[in-house]
Every structure is written in structure tokens, then in C-alpha cells.
Amino acid sequence: MAIKVAVIGAGGMSNYHIPGFKSGGAKITAIVDVNEEAAKATAEKYKIPEVYTNVDEMLKKSDVDAVSVITPNKFHKPLVIKSLKAGKHVFCEKPPALNAAEMKAMAQAAKKANKLLVFDFNNRARPEAVAMKKAIVSGEVGKINSVQALQIRRTGIPGFGGWFTTKELSGGGPVIDLLHMIDLALYFMDYPDPDYVLAKTYDDFITDKRFKGPWGIPDKEGGVCDVESAAHGFVTFKDGSVLFLRTSWAEMNKREEASVTFQGTKAGGLVRRLFGIDGIDETAEDTSELYFVDAKGKRKDKTLKVKKDETMGRLNAAKNFILAIEGKEAPFNTPEQGIKLMKIIDAIYASSNTKAPVKIK
Ligand SMILES: NC(=O)c1ccc[n+]([C@@H]2O[C@H](COP(=O)([O-])OP(=O)(O)OC[C@H]3O[C@@H](n4cnc5c(N)ncnc54)[C@H](O)[C@@H]3O)[C@@H](O)[C@H]2O)c1
Fold first, then answer.
1. Which domains does the chain carry?
2. Considering the entire predicted model, what is its pTM?
């Protein structure tokens, strides 16, 4: 029997979740959005039979196995916990939650309900990253000592005054919104335990309209812009490895880049997307390669050849969730990883506020 899914949040990302779940053999039987028009439009587009404006009502009436949460970040925790308590498996958009405390509560709820809780860290599901992880697991890379995680834009603020720029609703700016490359780096490193974080955030340009991103997200008159626009930092891990990070919505960078570079004891590597214009992918360039020195001291580079995926793993990640419910694939990530990741995010903000390294417990 096909897995039945309810989608909560009919915004832009539902256009990836819905086809992704379907490609895993699932049926989308319900859509919920507090904005009825948005819910109805998505229901019509994808022929979804049940439409709701209230999540409690959907959980009461709808006979679904799984729920996908695609709302602004503030609502992830309450909606995820509600759905788990109702006995549903949950796929939730990134970031997992506003902070590590919320993430811990979600992890506990998943454990108690004995249901899957998987996050949309879609970059792990990109063919370039899948091929790289395979090379790492095969032992080709050795022990990864150091990684550099970059997700940097020049003009990429997602609207002024909306939920993205309002800390109460989003949890922060690019540090939390663009946590993808930190997650991907940790995934390649096999999620070591973080030890210390030293970081600094900047809020230059956060109200400067010249730095708006190209997605057409409307500005909200009188809305709040109280998040950072960029951050730089360093994380040490208990196993001796280190991570350097750069992230920005608005900073004087050459080209938008999302990349993880690493140095292992047998090989170095790079998984990178260079975007066209900030946020626009038409001339994007994807790279996945390894760097070696052979027994004779000769330099050797290896390109990992993969099929191009314009969705950057978004369809694959949603498909994996369905296959994981059916026990056909391991889920791409776990709540325990979500906790470690959110502890690092919390510590980036804390270190910036205290101007000191933060010890992660
Ligand atoms: N993985 C990615 O590449 C990626 C890209 C963009 C956004 N996201 C994430 O997806 C999530 C949604 O972002 P978006 O850009 O689609 O936002 P959006 O504002 O376009 O859409 C969110 C939708 O949720 C609805 N909503 C809000 N509160 C709700 C509630 N309590 N119950 C039901 N519906 C509710 C809104 O009416 C809206 O239609 C965010 O967590 C964001 O970080 C991920």
C-alpha cells in the first residue's frame, strides 16, 4: 500500500516535496496551509483531495502515514511534535528548529512516538555529494582533518521585513538559513562531537535594499530586519578535526557559492556549486573532485562524474524519506545529528555576542 502523506505549508518548497514523495511511490492525500488560497491552489495543481487550513483538524480527520512540514522555522517544532504525537512519520524542512533546545524536544518526541523524523538537508542528496560520501566511506579519503564550509552570496537577502529577516520567526539570518554546508561538512566528517566555536556575525546591509535577492519575495512595510547578514567562524571537534565557515546573504563576494572543501589523510576533496547570479542557477557549475599524491609523489586529481540535478537533491531527499519509512533505504539524517548541528548554530550566535570561544556541552 502506498504511503499517504499530508503536506503542511503550500509555499515554494512544496513543489519539491510533492513530486519527490510521489517519485518514492507515495500518495499526497492532504494539504494544509493557514492561507486557504495557497492550500487550494496547490491542491488543484497536484490533484490533492483533502484541503485544510488547520493542522489539528487535518491530524484528526485525515488518514495519513506521514507529514511534511514546510512552514516558516518558528512553526517547525510545534507542528513536528504535534504530528509525531498523532503517530505520523515527519519530514521537516531545514533548519530543524530555532535552536538546540527545540531540536532536543523534537528528537525526544520522535523517540517516544517511535516514528521517523528526517530533515530536508537536500544537499546530502545531490549526486555530487552522494558520490563524495561513497568515496569517503570506501576509505579513499582517509581521516578528514579539516573542512571549509562556504555558502556565500553578494546580494541575496530574501526580502525585507518578512519572516526570513525576523529573528523571532526565523531564528536568525544566513547562519541558520544557510546551514546546509555546515551540515554537509559534518556529514562528510561522520558527524564528530563539536568542542569549541569561535565566530562573529555581521549585520551590514541587512536593511540595505541594494542587497535584496532575486526571488521576488515581497518586502513587508514596517516589518522587522533584526538578523545577521553574514558570519565567519571556526569550530573544533573532540576528535581533533576542525571546521572553518563562511556564510552570507549580503557581503562583497565575487559569486554565490555553496561548497565544502576538505583535507583528508589520503585525499582532499571539493563539492561545490557556483551559482549564476546570486540565487539564479542558469549558469551554475557543479564540481565534485578528489586530490591525491600517489606513491611516486605524482599529483593526481579525480573528477567524480555524476548526472546533473537541477533540484540540488531536493527530489531525492523527499524520495528517500518515503523509502526510509518503507525500510528500503536508511534515512539521510537523524535527530541526533540535528541536535549537534543546532548546538553549533547556537554557539555561533553565542560566541559572536560574548566575543569569546563557546564550549559545546
Ligand atoms: N531546502 C531548501 O533548499 C529550502 C529552500 C527554501 C526554503 N526552505 C525552508 O522551507 C520552509 C518554508 O519556506 P518557504 O520559502 O516555502 O516559505 P513560504 O513563506 O513561501 O511558505 C510557507 C507557507 O507556510 C504557510 N504557513 C505558515 N504558518 C503555517 C502554519 N502554522 N500551518 C500551516 N501553514 C503555515 C504559509 O501560509 C506559507 O504558505 C522554511 O523552513 C525554509 O527555511 C528550504
1. 4-119 (3.40.50.720), 124-316+339-359 (3.30.360.10)
2. 0.97
